[in-house]
Recover the amino acids of this structure.
């Protein structure tokens, strides 16, 4: 039965979107060049440890994944690090510890990790949302170790990087969008890679549900709701 003047919305599912963390998919810019250079310099790391600092969605995990593939490293979240698991985590001689922050990690386990890595000449890469200078940690020896780690900070994305990220995110979802859509979004979305991911995901969802293309008009409608 037809419904004049109306359209039938397609059923959509919030399926997880697979994101590639390969080296070839990393978009280099002045905002992340220093961090990428750190990864590329491995294994020439003083003290065999390094830290990448930046807000959520800034590219830390992508850089960590590039290094993990190159170094054969395993990856563990800071809150999941446990003392008894340290030998297994370092079985390959390299480890990524994601999201390190005071209160989010077992200090005794982290200190044991440092000692175990030093004994085995293993490499450690940490990611954190803020530079860790020891504030908030209780173990003095751990504070000293954390302060000694060379760290690089990811800068907010510039227009060139943010534009390239938008194009890639749409392409990853097999969405063809015109330059006008990118130009419209660029000055209006949150200035972060996480913001770009969020708006692309929402546009994809709404466009699919309505059975229409992603246009400047649709982008304007979505942004007005935020």
């Amino acid at each position: 039965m037809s419904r004049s003047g109306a359209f039938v919305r397609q059923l959509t599912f919030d399926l997880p979107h697979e994101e590639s963390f390969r080296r070839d998919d990393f978009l280099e810019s002045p905002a992340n060049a220093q961090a990428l250079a750190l990864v590329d310099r491995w294994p020439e790391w003083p003290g065999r440890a390094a830290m990448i600092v930046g807000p959520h969605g800034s590219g830390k995990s992508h850089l960590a994944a590039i290094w993990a593939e190159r170094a054969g490293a395993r990856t563990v979240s800071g809150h999941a690090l446990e003392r008894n698991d340290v030998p297994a985590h370092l079985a390959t001689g390299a480890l990524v510890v994601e999201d390190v922050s005071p209160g989010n990690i077992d200090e005794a386990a982290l200190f044991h990790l440092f000692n175990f890595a030093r004994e085995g000449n293993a490499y450690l890469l940490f990611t954190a949302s803020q530079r860790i200078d020891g504030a908030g940690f209780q173990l003095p020896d751990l504070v000293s170790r954390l302060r000694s780690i060379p760290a690089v900070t990811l800068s907010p994305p510039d227009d060139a990087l943010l534009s390239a990220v938008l194009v890639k995110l749409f392409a990853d979802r097999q969405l063809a969008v015109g330059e006008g859509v990118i130009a419209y979004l660029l000055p209006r979305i949150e200035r972060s890679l996480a913001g770009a991911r969020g708006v692309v995901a929402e546009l994809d969802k709404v466009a699919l549900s309505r059975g229409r293309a992603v246009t400047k008009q649709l982008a304007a409608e979505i942004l007005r709701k935020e």
Summary: Residues 193-210 form the longest helix (18 residues). The longest strand covers residues 123-128.
